[in-house]
């Protein structure tokens, strides 16, 4: 499966001049919402993600897919469908910390953590820690796009559909700013 071509066709991989949430500038941006608007495409992508996951973890039964809200929920749900697992999510409490609010986890339950995009891996790591605190066993992490450039290395295997860590610049060093290219603030 040519994932990059599929994502570009869906309008999810954008070329231009973008200001990221970090304040840094980049010539490429991944707009994951454009995948979520096409359920058939997301089903195909998550089917492929499930196959790649199986190639790494083998036939081990997966009980549950857990995702951080909001971005990860739809990916987690589709991946759970492809794996024949249940789908749960962690979400923020009133102080903005992720926690498990609506679901139970059995001791020893085998869990895959799912997310749409991983950059520094903070939310994936928080989700993993929450599952472990509740007695679950995290067996792998599965993401659509790994933007960490190899910097995020969780304890258990990380499986992605696309590794894409575009170059980023501080505004004062940005070659696109220097050329006077108009700046776009993509929705996150
Ligand atoms: Zn710039």
Q: Give the CATH level 1 class of the domain at 40-165.
A: Alpha Beta
What is the overall shape? globular
What's the number of extended β-strand segments? Answer: 9
Stretches with pLDDT under 50, minimum 5 residues:
none
Largest sheet: 6 strands, mixed
Structural class: alpha/beta
Q: Using the coordinates shown, work out and report the CATH topology of the domain at 40-165.
A: Rossmann fold
Rg, nearest Å: 17 Å
Strand content bin: 25-35%
* Ligand list: zinc ion
**Helix and strand sequence:** HEEHHEHEEEHEEEH
Strand order of the largest sheet: 5-4-3-6-7-8
What is the CA-CA span between the terminal residues? Answer: 26 Å
Helical residue percent? 25-40%
Mean pLDDT: 94
- Helix segment tally: 6
CATH architecture of the domain at 40-165: 3-Layer(aba) Sandwich
List the helices and strands and how they pair.
Blueprint: H1 3-9, E1 13-19, E2 25-30, H2 33-36, H3 39-57, E3 64-68, H4 71-83, E4 86-92, E5 98-99, E6 110-118, H5 122-133, E7 137-146, E8 158-163, E9 168-169, H6 175-178
Parallel strand pairs: 3-4, 3-6, 6-7, 7-8
Antiparallel strand pairs: 1-2, 2-9, 4-5
Helix pairs in contact: 3-4
This protein binds zinc ion.
């Amino acid at each position: 499966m040519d994932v990059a071509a599929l994502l570009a066709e869906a309008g999810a991989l954008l070329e231009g001049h973008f200001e990221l949430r970090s304040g840094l500038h980049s010539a490429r941006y991944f707009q994951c919402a454009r995948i979520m608007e096409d359920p058939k495409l997301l089903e195909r992508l998550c089917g492929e993600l499930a196959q790649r996951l199986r190639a790494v973890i083998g036939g081990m039964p997966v009980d549950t897919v857990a995702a951080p809200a909001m971005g990860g929920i739809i990916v987690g749900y589709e991946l759970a469908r492809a794996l024949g697992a249940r789908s749960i999510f962690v979400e923020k409490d009133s102080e903005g910390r992720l926690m498990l609010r609506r679901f139970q986890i059995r001791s020893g339950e085998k869990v895959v953590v799912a997310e749409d995009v991983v950059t520094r891996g903070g939310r994936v790591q928080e989700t993993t820690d929450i599952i472990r605190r509740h007695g679950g066993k995290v067996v792998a992490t599965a993401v659509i796009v790994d933007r960490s450039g190899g910097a995020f290395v969780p304890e258990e295997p990380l499986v992605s559909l696309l590794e894409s860590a575009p170059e980023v610049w501080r505004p004062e060093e940005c070659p696109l700013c220097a050329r006077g290219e108009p700046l776009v603030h993509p929705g996150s």
